[in-house]
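Morning. Coffee machine broken again, so started the prediction first thing and wrote up yesterday's gels while waiting. Chain of 92 residues, entered below exactly as on the submission form.
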Amino acid sequence: MKTEYTAWEKLSAMVSVLVTFYKPLAKVLFFVSILVILVASFFWFIGYSWGQIASCFIMILIFTVPAIFLAGIVWVSIEDDYRSVLQNRYRK
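Came back before lunch.
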């Protein structure tokens, strides 16, 4: 089994893993961003100022900081997939 890989082999394996992982995630983020815009517009329509709406979203972001740690866990799983793609692609 091949253990040393060129930079191009590593890059192509990482791109294939990232594309398969982030394609569904991009769709989710797109719909979440539309939802955020709709919710913010609704609160503006019923009389809240943009400052109040922004402060609410900032508080939500502050409380979602633990998501960064989850992203670290996801990154580890991406790296495992990346290594398995390399091993399966260049198995001899």
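The longest helix spans residues 7-45. Going to sketch it on the whiteboard this afternoon.
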